[in-house]
Amino acid sequence: MLISDSHQFVFVHIRKAAGTSLRQILERVSLPKNNHWWYKLLSRGGLAVNYHKYSFRKHANLVGAERSMPADKFKKYFKFAMVRNPWDRLVSEFEYIKTQPSHSRYKRLAAMDFAEFIEYQAKRPAAHQVNALTLKNGEVGCDYVGKLETLDESLEVIAKFTRLSFGELPHINKVQRRDYRSYYDDALKERVEKLWFKDIKTFDYEFENNQS
């Protein structure tokens, strides 16, 4: 997560949805991460820590900002994130981790096929995008949720509210792989539809059957 006082925004970084690329620009105007062990301990323990000292994880949930920021600032700041088609996102993360021997899940994933990976991911709260954007009251708390599939249009909105330019957005962590639809048969497609029902419904996604 990144928070900027100068540009008054809160960015929730969701994995495999252009977040690493966006950070290259957003970090320039954001608060530095607090790596002090004491504040890491307090933050991980869920104790009250002001957002200026809070040690936010890279992929921290929006509720962390809600708990650590003054209510008036949290309400005022532009809260946003980027999401991705769940079927496509699963393929992207599966293929990406396979290229990263230093990744914490590399060895575990190496022994899995894609169907097993889906079942494994389904049990991880962080694998469901809606969880990262939910507030204490259970509602999605972002002012804007962009989509990777319409990146240019999403960046126009983000640029307007953050007063930043994304004209030279780098493409980082891109992995060469097949079209995501080729990874699925009907049963696996329906399995993801069931397991990621909240993401699919909340962000209005569907499996695109026609491959170009």
Brief summary:
With 212 residues, the protein is an alpha/beta fold. It has helices at 19-26, 37-44, 62-68, 71-76, 86-97, 106-110, 114-122, 129-132, 151-162, 186-195, 197-202, and strands spanning 2-4, 9-12, 78-83, 144-147.
Overall description:
There is one protein chain. This protein is α/β, with parallel strands linked by helices and 212 residues long. It has a single domain (2-202), classed as Rossmann fold, CATH 3.40.50. It is built from 11 helices and 4 strands. It has helices at residues 19-26, 37-44, 62-68, 71-76, 86-97, 106-110, 114-122, 129-132, 151-162, 186-195, 197-202; strands at 2-4, 9-12, 78-83, 144-147. The chain has a 4-stranded mixed sheet. Strand 1 (2-4) and strand 2 form a beta hairpin. The longest helix is centred in the middle third of the chain and has 12 residues, at 86-97.
Features:
single chain, 212 residues, alpha/beta, Rossmann fold, 4-stranded mixed β-sheet, 4 strands, globular
Q: Structural class per helix/strand content?
A: alpha/beta
Major sheet: order of its strands?
1-2-3-4
Reading the helices and strands in chain order gives EEHHHHEHHHHEHHH
Structural shape: globular
What is the helix content?
Answer: 40-55%
Let me know the number of strands. 4
The largest pleated sheet is described as: 4 strands, mixed
Averaged pLDDT: 90
Name of the CATH first level: Alpha Beta
Count of alpha/pi helices = 11
Spans where pLDDT lies below 50 across 5 or more residues: none
- The radius of gyration over CA amounts to 18 Å
Supply the number of structural domains.
Answer: 1
- The N- to C-terminal Cα distance equals 35 Å
CATH topology group: Rossmann fold
CATH architecture: 3-Layer(aba) Sandwich
User: What share of the residues does DSSP label as strand, in percent?
Assistant: 5-15%
